[in-house]
Amino acid sequence: MFSMRNGLGGGDDAPGGLWNEPFSLERDGETVRGLLLHHPTLPNPYTMAVAARLTADTTVTYITAFDPDGTGQQVWQDLLQDGQLDSPAGDGGSHREVVGREAVPVWGAGGRPGNEWASFLSYGSLGLKGRPVLTPLVFLSGPSTPSQKGVGIAGAVCVTGKLPPRGRCCLEFSLAWDMPRIMFGAKGQVYCRRYTRFFGSDGDAAPALSHYALCQYTDWEERISAWQSSVLDDRSLPAWYKSALFNELYFLADGGTIWLEVPEDSLPEELAGSMCQLHPTLTEYGRFGYLEGQEYRMYNTYDVHFYASFALIMLWPKLELSLQYDMALATLREDLTGRRYLMSGVMAPVKRRNVIPHDIGDPDDEPWLRVNAYVIHDTADWKDLNLKFVLQVYRDYYLTGDQGFLRDMWPVCLAVMESEMRFDKDQDGLIENGGYADQTYDAWVTTGPSAYCGGLWLAAVAVMVQMAALCGTQDVQDKFASILSRGKEAYERLLWNGRYYNYDCSSQPQSCSIMSDQCAGQWFLRASGLGDGDTEVFPTPHVVRALQTIFEFNVQAFAGGAMGAVNGMQPHGIPDRSSVQSDEVWVGVVYGLAATMIQEGLTWEGFQTAEGCYRTVWERLGLAFQTPEAYCQQQVFRSLAYMRPLSIWAMQLALQQQHKKFSRPIAKQGKGLSTGSKLGPKEAMANPSPE
Predict the structure, then answer these.
(1) Mean pLDDT of residues grouped by 10 in the chain (691 residues)?
(2) Separation of alpha carbons 163 and 161, rounded Å
(3) Are 92 and 215 contained in the same domain?
(4) Domains in the chain: how many in total?
(5) What would the DSSP string read from start to end of 380-422?
(6) Max Cα–Cα distance, the chain, nearest Å
(7) CB 526: neighbour CB atoms within 10 A?
(8) For residue 120, what pLDDT is reported?
(9) Which part of the chain is the Glycosyl-hydrolase family 116 N-terminal domain (predicted)?
(10) How far apart are CA 240 and CA 651, in angstroms?
């Protein structure tokens, strides 16, 4: 038996008016029967469907309504009597068919009129453009009485089968929900969800969704198994890694995720006109959004998506490109409304033109139409956002080969890099941080040239050189090549100390801290097929030495080497406690660090580093499927269910790229580990079709 409350048990249920009704849907020789739980509360009404497949060996019964806040005795006693619920079970009763506004009798078995009732709604085979053809849907016994204010309502579906001695029987249930049209908190723009392209937007698709799921799920399981098998069957990969790689993908579905059709009038021609593939991409693949975290409610937080984006570009690349187009559009807009920022107390515009927004908006407001819900800092002065856009654009081009996308993004990259150049105040080719927490570590003050933002800057400049060559703009290529030459010299002179790159150039003691994320620029260069040989930006011996130092201090000297890499470690082996973030472990940063280690041939170290995070989160803290942004050595954690840990897919990309390059195992201290599975980036697609 599958019982289900109508609603979530919260404030949206309180007004009452909720009602349930049974249904039966037959199509292509398969019959699905169950209950519809109608929840008409505005502004986002929906229907849930609890359903089961009716076969020759099973009986499906139901109870349309009962009190979910009582003891359940009514349902339980009914079930105990005969293993069924007290409802019409077969097709022998008569029904009444409703066609339009007219009702006509439908005769029961043996030509005898019965005394049950039914209404017919629409669902059948998929017709033109994938939309359902109108065919009968039977409703049995009629609807329940709508719930009263403050009173809950639930229903239950039971499947019964006869099991012979030592026999086997499979009983199948599905839960589907249909909320086709939505509004966000500001109740302005109405959106249709992506699935309405295939199931319609009238709010009557729950039976169709149930039927589709119950008839297709075995095929889905087979496809998932085929996709995962190359990793799961690879005995050289540790079990914890296989678990983390696939299970961290929970956040792509459970991260407040929305996938919407783009309203026809929502793409401003004056901004979109120069992007040839913008309309086709957003129209065909829709608009995708996921929250920074379930506690940090901002969509597509871009400084964090920088890490998480590896999961999208490797598995659902068109959604990544769609997100990038949305970010490019937001970059070209401005919102000069003034507001006061919490950390500085300064009044500044919500959004300035030609700078990447921090996020695409708040679900309680109007995402996409009003961006930058983040109010702690004025992120127009952040040093990392523009650079992360440029780096992601080139990586996405490299992994997809989409030249049209690159051409569309090129003017936006030029604009944001031009904005970024104002941070190079001494014209030495290297930007300076502003003496406050002006990057993704938004509580960790950075002053002057820094390992993190300086490294991202040099990597972005190097990428601009490559893109300029691809776009045939020699003057731009020469300009950025000159900046790169000067910037590389300044970066090495100001920050390299022989073992690692200093945190920043301030006069504070923490300036010489060992930052676990100092090689983020090199990480993205390697992921994009750059960073060595003719395209080397950071001297390879320095990169390897820095990673070895991080492993020695931030990993092994922290918590016995069993909790991943702490963000900041002082050179004498004490965590940097100059800020609330410097002595945290950021799970997504650690997975990115591990990927960088793999890229540079330190595969054993990379897996040791990442394993500490997995063991801490999934085993010691018991936070499976709610991986936090951060935790401390004392097992205090922050921001459950967070976007950044999706960066574990960067480890998989690094393994695949290393396998292509070397095709040989790497071992250390008697522990063997293959450099990767045999999949290439484009072969690792989880979803072969846009549906």
Answers:
(1) 94 95 96 97 97 93 95 92 76 30 30 30 36 47 91 96 90 97 96 97 98 98 97 97 98 97 79 78 95 97 98 98 96 96 97 98 97 98 98 98 96 98 98 98 98 98 98 98 98 98 96 98 98 96 98 98 98 97 98 98 98 98 97 95 98 95 48 33 35 32
(2) 6
(3) yes
(4) 2
(5) GG-SSHHHHHHHHHHHHHHHH--HHHHHHHHHHHHHHHHHHGG
(6) 94
(7) 24
(8) 29
(9) 1-89, 106-220
(10) 13
Residue 273 pLDDT = 65
Has residue 354 been placed in a domain?
A: yes
Q: For tokens 């300009």, what's the residue?
A: 479
Contact 25, 181 (CB under 8 A): no
The range of the structural domain enclosing residue 34 comes to 2-99+134-183+192-227
350 shares a domain with 271: yes
Tell me the C-alpha distance between 603 and 599, whole Å: 8
Each as own residue / partner, the long-range contacts of residues 505-508 (CB below 8 Å, 24 or more positions apart, any chain) are: 505/432, 505/447, 505/448, 505/449, 505/450, 506/435, 506/445, 506/446, 506/447, 506/448, 508/447, 508/578
**CA–CA separation, 331 and 397 (whole Å):** 19
CA distances from 490 to 426, 430, 464, 529, 535 (A): 11, 7, 19, 24, 18
* Residue 85: CB atoms within 10 Å: 22
Residues 6+ apart with CB under 8 A from 422: none
Name the token pair of 273.
Answer: 């006109």
In degrees and rounded to multiples of 5, residue 185 shows phi and psi of -60, -35
| Burial group, residue 465, by CB count within 10 angstroms (0-12, 13-18, 19+) | buried
Structural domain includes residue 567 = no
The pLDDT, as a whole number, for residue 381 is: 98
